[in-house]
Q: What sequence folds into this?
């Protein structure tokens, strides 16, 4: 038996303004499914205010209560959520679901070359257009010439897998032209092979001066991620309440992507959730109860494993990203580091939030670069943004750090 295609994801938009919409997912289970679904909701700008998940290891039933934006594209959201579930096959003309038998091929990478006249907020406007078109930025290099001309290189993938077509390329150009008006000097899209993307990659290891700036004294009170959060993340584990599962209880302050940060951490540890409940109480205080087990189907009884998982969860909830502003001689550089899942997925819309925060601060970007690097034993997506000289002198460093952090955490 299976489940009809239209019943895999059911969305009930709220009927009253201010009430949450309800998203129900009913499909076969797979490792990391909760993380993948939460990542999609985060990409669409939805805030999860409550969640319930139940699975027997083969089939799962998940309900999200979400607060959405007025312009949420529900049909497109449903399509993306369905795609994240195990793939479907047709039997007697009816669509059913089954587990994926093989990994999907890597998406094609395209290079957008954009040359335009510089202005404040330009990079954010371009990023917003690309995001709305579901074009995912894999890497970017932005530079400004002395005469005020900006050269943007975006390495992107297309969620819709249509960027090789003339219509999709024309749609992209038209959307950029609409927002940039007469600022466009030249524009080009081309598919690039692995040899080009490999040449464009930065060194896998960052200079120690940069890693020290981002990760020095990870729990220091000088970091905006700690000074602006509750700094009171409580993670407890209990093996006495279930014969087969370890209960993980988390109490912390809400932030954008909170449930995603928890789910991606458990996914990286190959931890399976059998039952879970998430809700936000008054004052943005979150309480999460998760009944989990290891991939071998057993509860976590080893004290060292409990400590390792508990410590990682605390770290990911206190500092899901790293943000700092440093001086490079006469220049000022904004550094943001975003952990990459073991599946090679990074947190969505980070560059969008960074550029929006700088636009709100009326700060120009002189150059920008995104690269993936190994720092310690983990891969990180590192954003290096050189701020305009005038802005770096007029806005305090601490102010830039806090505004970027608040935007990334959804506290704007």
A:
């Amino acid at each position: 038996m299976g489940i009809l295609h239209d019943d895999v994801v059911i969305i009930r938009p709220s009927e009253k303004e201010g009430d949450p919409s309800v998203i129900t997912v009913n499909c076969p289970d797979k490792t990391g499914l909760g993380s993948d679904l939460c990542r999609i909701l985060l990409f669409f700008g939805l805030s999860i205010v409550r969640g319930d998940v139940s699975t027997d290891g083969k089939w799962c039933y998940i309900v999200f209560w979400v607060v959405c934006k007025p312009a949420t594209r529900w049909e497109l959201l449903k399509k993306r959520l369905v795609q994240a579930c195990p793939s479907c096959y047709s039997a007697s003309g009816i669509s059913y679901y089954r587990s994926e038998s093989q990994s999907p091929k890597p998406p094609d990478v395209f290079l957008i070359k954009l040359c335009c006249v510089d202005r404040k907020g330009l990079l954010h406007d371009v990023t917003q257009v690309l995001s709305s078109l579901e074009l995912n930025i894999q890497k970017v290099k932005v530079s400004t010439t002395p005469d005020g001309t900006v050269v943007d290189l975006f390495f992107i993938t297309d969620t819709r897998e249509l960027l090789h077509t003339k219509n999709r390329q024309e749609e992209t150009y038209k959307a950029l032209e609409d927002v940039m008006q007469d600022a466009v000097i030249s524009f080009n899209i081309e598919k690039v092979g692995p040899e080009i993307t490999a040449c464009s990659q930065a060194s896998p290891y960052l200079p120690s001066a940069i890693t020290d700036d981002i990760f020095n004294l990870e729990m220091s009170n000088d970091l905006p991620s700690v000074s602006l959060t509750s700094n009171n993340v409580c993670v407890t584990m209990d093996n006495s309440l279930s014969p087969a599962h370890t209960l993980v209880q988390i109490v912390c302050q809400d932030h954008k992507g909170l449930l995603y940060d928890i789910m991606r951490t458990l996914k990286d540890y190959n931890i399976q959730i059998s039952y879970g409940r998430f809700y936000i109480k008054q004052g943005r205080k979150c309480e999460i109860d998760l009944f989990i087990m290891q991939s071998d189907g057993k509860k976590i009884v080893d004290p060292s494993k409990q400590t390792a998982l508990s410590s990682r969860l605390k770290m990911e909830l206190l500092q899901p990203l790293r943000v700092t502003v440093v001086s490079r001689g006469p220049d000022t550089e904004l550094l943001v580091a975003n952990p990459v899942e073991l599946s090679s997925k990074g947190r969505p819309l980070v560059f969008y939030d960074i550029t929006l925060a700088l636009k709100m601060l009326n700060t120009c970007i002189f150059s920008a670069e995104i690269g993936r690097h190994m720092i310690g034993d983990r891969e990180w997506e590192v954003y290096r943004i050189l701020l305009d000289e005038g802005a770096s002198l007029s806005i305090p460093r601490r102010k830039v750090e806090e505004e970027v952090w608040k935007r990334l955490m959804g506290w704007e």
